[in-house]
Amino acid sequence: MIPYSICISVPKNYLNRLMHYAVEFYTQQCYSESEERLKQIMSYLDKMSNLECRVLLAEDMPDNQRLVSFYLKQAGAEVFFADNGQIALDIALEASNHGFPFDVILMDIQMPVLNGNEATKKLRESGYTGAIIAITAHTSSHDRQTCLDAGCDDYTTKPVNPNRLIDLVAHYASKRKRKELTEDTVIV
């Protein structure tokens, strides 16, 4: 494995070319890596521009905001931030009330002012039906169940696995879009 990494920022129209070069560089440097690992990387890169959705990221730590939003933006999502649970609650309800609900809310559980579980409960009590995914460093089955009991649709852990994150967001965003299509379809 390479003991260093290189981060390059490029305009989106160069993204596919950059991914090609990154994979080519990776394969040349890590020829002895297993073929399965290479397939995982290729699969992740293939997903990176297919996600078209609006995500509210409720996260109080700037480093986590940057990392998670990087993955989501590279995958094609539009990302909005909330620094605590109260702000997330306010933004989500405001967007929903104006007809622009988020496709997915990623809700950190331990935040100041109003924690993620309390924010999720208040959203559900207010009639919010959109997807809410808990994102937390706590990994026990009890913590997972607490998040689900609060009203979260799913749960993922930190450190964030980019494949899992993109898969979860894609799943719930497409589920919402399918629901909107069936509600908008008029049978004559």
TrEMBL record:
Pfam family, one: Response_reg
EC number(s) per entry: 2.7.13.3
TM regions (residue ranges): none
Keyword presence, Ligase: no
Top-rank taxon: Bacteria
EC class of the enzyme, as a word: transferase
GO molecular function annotations of the record: protein histidine kinase activity
CDD domains hit by this protein: REC_hyHK_CKI1_RcsC-like (cd17546)
Positions of modified residues (4-aspartylphosphate): 108
GO BP terms, alphabetized: phosphorelay signal transduction system
Claim: Kinase is one of the keywords in the record: yes
InterPro entries with a match to the protein in the record: CheY-like_superfamily (IPR011006), Sig_transdc_resp-reg_receiver (IPR001789)
Protein keywords: Kinase, Phosphoprotein, Transferase, Two-component regulatory system
Residues of the Response regulatory domain: 54-173
Name recorded for this polypeptide: Sensor histidine kinase RcsC
